[in-house]
Structures are given as structure tokens and as C-alpha cells.
Amino acid sequence: MNYNFIKLIKEAFNNNDGWEKTWKNPTLKKHYDILIIGGGGHGLATAYYLASEFKQKNIAVLEKGDIGLGNVGRNTTIIRSNYMLNENEAFYEFSLKLWEGLEQQINYNAMVSQRGVLNLFHSDAQRDSFIRRGNSMLINGADAELYNVNKIKTIYPYLDYNNARFPIKGGLFQKRGGTVRHDAVAWGYAHAADKLGVDIIQNCEVNGFKVTSGNCVGVETNKGFIKAKKVGCAVAGSTSILMSKVNMTLPIESHVLQAYVSESLKPIIPGVITFGAGHFYISQSDKGGLVFGGDIDGYNSYAQRGGMDNLEDVCESGLALMPIIGKARLLRMWGGIMDMSMDGSPIIDKTHINGLFINAGWCYGGFKAIPASGWCFAHLLSKGYSHPLSENFSLDRFKNGYMIDEKGQGAQPNLH
């Protein structure tokens, strides 16, 4: 089913009885050419690009729950490509370009809103660092502008510019950055993949892998054994649990990242703002709620909830930046499980087991990376070798010493 204006008008006069399901509930086959474990953004995008760009057939996505209830629906919806290291910047700029044409390509309203991302700086040293980052963005074909305080005041007059501890001295602005409706991304990719013949199997949990003579030949699930020529794993913060079923230990830790939404307010924040003196970022949803977040919780966890100490820290940063939100009431909060790698950059690679592939280690970058991640993982699964944009995101880089450490924090996952 295609969504379009004519169909909308027709259904308005037809009591909306003609709408079909966004994706089907197919019968599980006993054999597939390619299995994707994980029905989140990365898994669904991979399946879609396998079918649309690489013309693969007989593909299934296995999701242990319902589509949209994992990390893809548990984030603060920001998209951007404002990185400094070439490996990251080129990859995320490719992702941002895919975001720009996504709705037309998948025929689904994902509410892509390029409202701009402003990263504030609060010292001369931080300004110099942001200038370096902006230059790297420009070299890699992205957009970047350096804003002075007067320019920022015309857009955000209510920020605390006179804060003695954290004076706002300017910001790095990416106009093409913005937000996307997170769960609509999952629904849209599922809709598009389903149209191309991909089987989306919900409530199908993988309990183990069958490996014969060094080859992965299928998976054991709560619905029985499924044979496959290739298996791709894209399960975010559950990666270490899943891969332990085949005795693999990965350079990944799982942490909770909380997100918060306030009550609905009149429009006050036109874009996305990040606080340079603390880890805090905020935007305003179309419903009027302030959507914000900060650091991950400091301990390892697989729970989709976090601690009150993190909530207090995030709110303190928010009030230091913009005191006007002090009386806004918090409506809800949730947590997503982040797969934090040792250098803060992802892994898209083969494993030592033939036919078994991994897509993990996304840290904070998972949501904005969905289109490029899906494209590059589909390339790897289809052709057997890495896409040029993801060839540096190899699993053996930790052994070989080729770190992609965007923040320069060293081998401590919770600091990335």
C-alpha cells in the first residue's frame, strides 16, 4: 500500500476502512538466505537496503518483542553529522544525506525536521576545539557555521548569558541537523521492507546459534530452528548477551541512557541546543514537550530505566543553561540500553565465524546513524566485504591499536 494525498482523501470519504496494515504478519519459513536479528532501526534499515539497493531476496528480521519498543523508540530523536574525526564525519554525513531523502524513499512520514543543531561553547579553548571540528565537517562536505553571542541571542534570548561559571561565548551551528520521529523510523522502514518481500517476525527471540565446522548455519529461537546462509546481529545494548551464546566476548559495555519529556508548552525552542559546560541537550517536540537528556548512568546495566541521581544532574545542567524551564513539570522518562564500545565508535564487521556478522557499539550515535548503518551493514552482508565508509569500524581495530576515539577519552566505555 502506498501512502499519498489521493489515498488520504479517498479514505476520508470511506470511513477509513481501506487502510491496510503497515506491515504483514507473515508465516515463519524454515530457511532464509539472510537473517537479521534485531527489529530496531538498524536491523530494519539493513533489511530494507538489502532488498532495495542490493537486490537480495528471502530475508527475515527477527525481533524478540514488538517493532518499535526497543532503543529505536527510546532516544531523544536528534540527527546530526558534526564530528571531527574523518572516519566518523564521513559516515555520519552520509547518514544525514540519507535522512534528507528518507521519507520519499520509504513512502512514510518520519517527521524529519531539519531545524538546526547548536553546540554552545563556554571558553576560548572550547571555541578553538569547535572551530577544528567545524573545519573537519566542511572538509567532509557537511555544513557548519560559527555563531557569536549576538547571533545566538537573536534565536535564543532566554539562555543564561551572564552565568559567571558558564558564560556563553558562541556556538557551532549545523543547519541541516535536527530531529526525526523515532518510532516512525521503525514503522517506516518496516513498511518499506515488507513491501519488498522481507518477512518481519515479531516476538521471536533468538536463544542460540548453530555453528557447524566454523560456519553459522542458523539460529535457535522460541519458534524453532531457522536455517540461514548468513546471520546479521543488530541488537544494540543486548549485543554482549546475544554473542555470548556463541562464546564471543566483545569490547562493549552496556549502560543505560535516560531521556526525559516535560509537559507540553508553547513553542520556545526552534532547534536543538547542547550545553558545552555539561552533558545536556534539548529540543521541543511537535506536541510541545521539552525533550532532553544527558550522560549515561555510571554503572553497567541491561535495565530500561535509570537512577534519580542522573535525573538530578541533567536537570541541574538544564537550569544552568536556561533557567526559564525551572517550573516546567516532568511528564515522563525512560531508558535505552547503550552498547558502549572502548573507543566510542561502532563496529560493523564479520566475526571469526563464517556467515555471522555484527553491527554494534553505537554508544550515543545509534539513532542518527540508522540509515548509513543499515546501508553499510547491508553492503557487508550482500558482498562479503565492508563498505568504504565503514571499513575502519572493524572488530580487530582494538587488537591492532587503530582506535577511532572521537572524544579522546581512552579505553573507558562509560566516558564516550
Describe this structure in words.
It is built from ten helices and 18 strands. It is α/β, with parallel strands linked by helices. The protein folds into two domains: 215 residues, 3-Layer(bba) Sandwich (FAD/NAD(P)-binding domain); 172 residues, 2-Layer Sandwich (D-Amino Acid Oxidase, Chain A, domain 2). Strands 1, 2, 8, 9, 10, 11, 17 and 18 form an eight-stranded mixed sheet that branches. Strand 14 and strand 15 form a beta hairpin. The chain starts with a helix and ends in a 16-residue tail after the last helix.
Number of helices: 10
Q: If classified by CATH, what would the architecture of the largest domain be? A: 3-Layer(bba) Sandwich
Low-pLDDT sequence parts: none
Mean pLDDT: 93
Strand content: 25-35%
CATH topology of the largest domain: FAD/NAD(P)-binding domain
Q: How would you spell out the order of helices and strands? A: HEHEEHEHEHEEHEEEEHEEEEHEEEHH
What percentage of residues falls in helices of 4 or more residues? 25-40%
Class inferred from helices and paired strands: alpha/beta
Indicate the CATH class of the largest domain.
Answer: Alpha Beta
Relevant CATH superfamily of the largest domain: FAD/NAD(P)-binding domain
Gyration radius (Cα, Å) is: 22 Å
Q: What overall geometry do the principal axes of the alpha carbons give?
A: globular
| Domain unit count | 2
Number of E strands = 18
Oligomer: single chain
* Main pleated sheet: 8 strands, mixed
C-alpha termini separation: 42 Å
Topology summary:
Elements: H1 5-12, E1 31-37, H2 41-52, E2 59-62, E3 78-79, H3 86-106, E4 117-121, H4 124-139, E5 145-147, H5 149-155, E6 170-174, E7 178-179, H6 182-195, E8 199-201, E9 206-212, E10 215-221, E11 224-233, H7 239-244, E12 252-264, E13 272-275, E14 280-284, E15 289-300, H8 308-321, E16 330-341, E17 347-350, E18 356-360, H9 370-383, H10 397-400
